[in-house]
Every structure is written in C-alpha cells, then in structure tokens.
Design a protein that fits this description.
single chain, 297 residues, alpha/beta, TIM Barrel, 8-stranded parallel barrel, 46% helix
Length: 297
Amino acid sequence: MSELKGIFVPTCTPFDKVTEAVNEKALSAHLDRLLGAGVHGIVSCGGTGEFAYLSEAERRQVHQSIAARVRGKAKFIAQSSAVRTTDAIENAKFAEGLGADAIMMLPPYFEGPTMDGVMWHFEQVARAVKTPIIVYNIPQNTNRDITPNLFKELLELDNIDYIKDSTGDFTRIQQLIATGGKVLNGGDALAYQALVAGCPGLIWGGANVVAREAVRMYDLVTKGDLSAAAAVWKTILAPQLFFWTHDYNSSVKAAVNLLGGDVGICRKPALPLDDADLAELKSTLAPLNPPLASRAQ
C-alpha cells in the first residue's frame, strides 16, 4: 500500500428529510464536491458520518456507495469498529472485500475490556485481514485511551502503522510521532500545528466544510511555505474552534449547508443548531466570503 498522506475527510452522511433513509444522491454530490477540491482520501462511516446512528445494513450501504464513487480518484478508508471482536473482524473483512486502502478501528468501547483486552482485540483483527489498520483513538468518547506506550506495542503488528488521534492534545500528538508510527491528526483545532510537527496527514471532519482550503494548506506545508500555510489556517480556524466546542456533527452539517452544499441535518436525537449558535457559526465562516445559503438546517 502507498503511504497515507494528505487530507482525508470522514464524510458527512446525508439523510432524506422525510424518511431519514440514507440520501444516496446527496451523498454522491457531496463526495464529488470533496473530490473536486482535491482531497486525498475519503473515510466512510466515521464519527462525522454518524456511524453510531446507522444500522449495520446502512453502514455497509454507505461503505459500498463511497467505495464505488471514490475508487481510482482518492484513497478509501472504511471505519469498521465494533464492540465484539468477532463483529469487528467481520466488518474488517467486508471493508477489505470492497478494496479499502485502509481500515479505521476504535478500541472496544462502552464498559470495554482492560487494556490487555484492547491489545488482544487489535491483534485478532490484524491477523484476520491484510489491509492496513488505522487505530482510532478518541478516548473522550470511548473511555479507552491508546497511549504512546500501547501504540508502540500495536506497531509491532504487521499491518498496524497508523493512528488517528482525536484527543485534541498537541503534547500527545508529539509523543505519538516520537514512537516512529505514522500519526493522522483528528483534532480539528490542531490541523496546521500537527502537519508542521510531522503528521503525514489529517483525518479531518471539519474539512467537509473547507476541503479546498485544507488541501491548499497541506500543499503549502509540504512545500515548506509555512507562512502562506499559516495564512490559510488563519482564515479557517474560527469554524474549527466552533465545531470542537459545539455539537460537532450538527455544526459541520450546518456549515456545509451554509456554504452551498446540501447534507441535511443529523439523525435524531442529534438536533439542529439553535438560532443563537447558527448566527455564531455564520460569523465564523465570514472570512471565507461564501455566498451563505438562506437555508441553514
């Protein structure tokens, strides 16, 4: 597998306004928008894709749709987590069958095992597939933290080289980089700093909103033009901070819609932003000078 480098977007999952079924037409249009912006990869059924609100059949539907749309245009990463190891293995094999370039996987969550059990879980999945696995660390949601020491152990497995770290902690990012593993930052508000520190790429939910700017910033960092990259970052930082401090998925979807996209609203019980938050979000998008859509939700 070629190295994972660049901007990887865990895409929003649009739903039909009436039935709440996955809106395939809107999903395809949003993917085309991201691919047109030059993103390097798409992550299906990530946290920003509301995988927790999808049935297993819907997750597979979304994986299949994205694999078909993205193939040959960008990398395809399938988020394939499950609490039970047998289910995680089955999900990983399904993703591998679709030709995924990588599989992203959380540790078992909600009253999960000891850290020895977490290690065992990843060992079993890694042995079951040949596709590279990205360890997905977001301890604020899983109550299981993939520490730098544990990541060192995981790196000893043949097909684990990457971690997506969504702690939003720059010290942690640097500690993980020091392990020699490949770190894909998932903390929106640290995107620029993580690239400069040595992350080869970002798995960035907020890039649903600023895909073109994200790719531009990445290109400038890789060329060594940090001043120009910092200027791009300055124009997109305010919405990233907003996403990180508000209802994340509802905020990202609202911002996409405000900028002329159409990804709808989140599945209940996640609610749309209220008027005050929506007004604040609009103000954070002002530096982008977009034609704000009259519809926001």
